[in-house]
Design goal:
The complex is a heterodimer of chains A (559) and B (132). With 559 residues, chain A is of the alpha/beta class. In chain A, strand 2, helix 3 and strand 3 form a beta-alpha-beta unit. Chain A has 22 helices and ten strands. Among the domains of chain A are: 282 residues, TIM Barrel, CATH 3.20.20.240; 48 residues, no CATH class. By secondary structure, chain B is an alpha/beta fold. Chain B has a single domain, classed as 3-Layer(aba) Sandwich (Rossmann fold), CATH 3.40.50.280. Chain B has a five-stranded parallel sheet with strand order 2-1-3-4-5, with helices on both faces. Classes of the chains: A alpha/beta (559), B alpha/beta (132). At the A-B interface, helix 4 and helix 18 of A face helix 1 and helix 3 of B.
Chain lengths: 559, 132
């Protein structure tokens, strides 16, 4: 439909059609007076060619693998190979997590994703007082290189790619991973994987920060710089909207706040003297797959286009790989219900389908029991099978961006793009993402959306099946997977043994070198690598940095 | 006419858990419901929570944990309150807490536990009905 004459006919036809429909509304009213998606964007009754413009096709949508990448980052997408199926897992001890990883690899999973417990994520050893009650609960406890060696026992690190959800101490865990690989005879330049390493969203949404923003940004740029030289296939950061969305943001806010954080990292790296086209290609992203199916697909497409423009126009990147958003997706934990948990299998399948139709590079599907406890092996298997069903049975992977060209989807992609761009402008005016977080702007925007969402559910303006509609009386589930509380005791015992057997003088020297480097402006990664190889613990290393950098105090945005 | 005293609530995040969506939504709903709410922020130790509760002279402590550390942290708060001789504060919990853990928490003195799917109205009504 490129002929203007055709459009005039269409305009007349649509006018006639709308008048006809309006007349019928008294007799056959619609379900609601106004339809609005989760971002507050009004949804019209019908979209047609008049809602887009053919003239802008190449500049706004384009072809897959080409700027602005709206339709995907690769020319053949899933016709070449499927997305990486990567289930986030880890609990209790390194032994138990290692056996879960080997189960998942046996089941056809194609990448690993490591969940660490909270003490590890906040840089405390298992014997720290702050760790009581938390050891091994939400992920695996890692205190030293010894635990990391157990975690990857019999998993060839040159064959798998490993994603690690680790932020404030990301550099230390990366150093441990490199050291384990070295012991397996695998050199760092063969390693593939990702560290999350996205501290800004920890301040605004996720909470596992340690140091204040400025020194944290220095560690991040040290990682960028070290990996460019030594671990070239490693994704140095996973700039994450997932947790922003889980904290309650809308789809538009998820795109805006994530890309605004991305801008801050690029600026920090440029400030440290790095070249945009050397670190740019290793930036990766992480998005949520929430309930509004088409809104989510539009979100991924809008994010690709917006980031490509930011990198090209604002940062003058020229390497096409610097312009691409490559992203991981996880289905939305916050949409799962504790009521009728089997319904979650269906929710997750729809959400996963939206991520695939949105062109994700890798995917985690949540398990049905996650609103209750840690996922059981059976629940994880069904979650993985849902991805395999989408890939092998549904046919949606056989053409690139199959929904591209839908009048509604293209219109919605534009709407999300424009609204997210407006938010980013607002954040620029506040002085950038770190400043906007320090002023509480980002947190307030997110918590307002979360509150609105909850009000909608309570007023039954938003229906959640099994929660506020179609409820049933049900038996409480039993036999939930639990972490044995003795995990802390066994970790403490291992730590005690480690501290008595390692070369204490060597550890002291490494920590002293690290301290000197931290006070100066040396790249911290080689120093951390030496320290972990000497079996300095995670807590000891993070304490050195705490002493020099101080600790972050959260902004209170309530009231 | 005696002016009714506003119910004062300490909304608290014990432990290392960073999930604060729930606690913030509940805190705001309690404020909209006419209560005074003090929010501790993240990473509070049990003794910090007890100190804040005494200092702020609250009627209620509402704690939220999604990390699974409730089995240690909730009873620890009750124990420290007991040591300080505080027995007139209503202590409630929320988050991802398996049903089978609830009897032990109640045994330790947690008045009630509110899981996923609870409405803010239920929590407001509960507090109004149970604060002395």
């Amino acid at each position: 439909m490129t002929e203007h004459a055709g459009y005039e006919d269409l305009q007349t036809a649509l006018k006639r059609w709308s008048e006809g429909v309006e007349k019928q509304l008294n007799k056959r009213p619609e379900r609601k007076a106004e339809f609005v998606n989760t971002s507050g964007i009004p949804v019209k009754r019908l979209y047609s060619p008049l809602d887009g413009s053919d003239a802008s096709y190449l500049s706004e949508i384009g072809l897959p693998g080409e700027y602005p990448f709206t339709r995907g980052v690769q020319p053949t997408m899933f016709r070449g190979r499927y997305w990486t199926m990567r289930q986030y897992a880890g609990f209790a001890t390194a032994e138990e997590s290692n056996s879960r990883y080997r189960f998942l690899l046996d089941q056809g999973q194609t990448g690993l994703s490591v969940a660490f417990d909270l003490p590890t994520q906040i840089g405390y050893d298992s014997d720290n007082e702050m760790a009581i009650g938390e050891v091994g609960k939400v992920g695996v406890a890692i205190d030293s290189l010894e635990d990391m060696e157990t975690l990857f026992n019999k998993i060839p690190l040159d064959k798998v790619s490993t994603s690690m959800t680790i932020n404030a101490p990301a550099a230390v865990l990366l150093a441990m991973y490199i050291a384990v690989a070295e012991k397996q005879g695998v050199s760092a330049d063969k390693l593939r994987g990702t560290i999350q390493n996205d501290i800004l969203k920890e301040y605004s949404s996720r909470g596992t920060y340690i140091y204040p923003p400025k020194p944290s940004m220095r560690i991040i740029t040290d990682i960028f710089s070290y990996c460019t030289e030594n671990v070239p296939m490693w994704n140095t950061i996973s700039i994450s909207g997932y947790h922003i969305r889980e904290a309650g943001s809308t789809a538009v806010q998820e795109v805006a706040f994530t890309l605004a954080n991305g801008i801050a990292y690029v600026q920090a790296a440029l400030g440290a003297g790095l070249d945009v086209d050397t670190f740019g290609p290793r930036l990766s992203f992480f998005f949520n797959a929430h309930v509004d199916f088409l809104e989510e697909i539009a979100k991924y497409r809008a994010a690709r286009r917006l980031w490509a423009e930011i990198m090209r126009e604002r940062f003058k990147a020229t390497n096409p790989k610097s312009l691409m958003i490559r992203f991981h997706t996880q289905t939305a934990g916050c949409t799962l219900t504790a009521q009728q948990p089997k319904n979650n299998i269906v929710r997750v399948a729809f959400q996963a389908l939206s991520a695939v139709l949105g062109g994700t590079q890798s995917l985690h599907t949540n398990s049905m029991d996650e609103a209750l406890c840690l996922p059981s092996e059976e629940a994880v298997q069904i979650a993985l099978r849902s991805q395999q069903l989408i890939a092998y049975e549904t046919g949606v992977a056989d053409t690139v961006d199959p929904l591209g060209g839908s009048y509604y989807l293209e219109n919605l992609t534009n709407e999300i793009y424009e609204r997210a761009a407006a938010y980013i402008q607002k954040i620029d005016e506040l002085g950038g993402s770190a400043e906007a977080i320090e002023k509480g702007f980002v947190q307030r925007e997110i918590q307002d959306s979360a509150y609105r969402y909850q009000r909608e559910i309570e007023k039954e303006e938003r229906i959640v099946i099994g929660l506020n509609r179609f409820q049933v009386e049900e038996e409480k589930p039993t036999n939930l997977l639990r972490v044995d509380p003795s995990v802390r005791t066994s970790q403490i015992e291992r730590l005690r043994k480690l501290r008595s057997e390692r070369d204490g003088k060597m550890v002291e020297k490494c920590l002293a070198d690290l301290k000197a480097g931290t006070e100066g402006d040396q790249n911290l990664i080689p120093l951390m690598l030496e320290a972990v190889k000497a079996y300095a613990t995670l807590g000891e290393i993070c304490d050195v940095l705490r002493e020099v950098f101080g600790e972050y105090q959260q902004v209170n945005t309530l009231g | 006419m005696v002016k009714e005293k506003k119910i004062r609530v300490l909304a608290a995040k014990p432990g290392l858990d960073g999930h604060d969506r729930g606690v913030k939504v509940v805190a705001r709903a309690l404020m909209d419901g006419g209560m005074e709410v003090v929010y501790t922020g993240l990473r509070q130790t049990p003794s910090q929570i007890v100190e804040s509760a005494i200092q702020e002279d609250v009627d209620v402590i509402a704690m939220s944990i999604l990390s699974g550390a409730h089995d240690y942290l909730f009873p620890k708060v009750m124990e420290l309150l007991g040591e300080k001789g505080v027995d007139d504060i209503l202590v409630i919990g929320g988050g991802i807490i398996p049903d089978e853990d609830i009897p032990a928490l109640k045994e330790a003195g947690i008045a009630d536990v509110f899981g996923p799917g609870t409405t803010t109205t239920q929590i407001i009504d509960y507090i109004r009905g149970n604060v002395n």
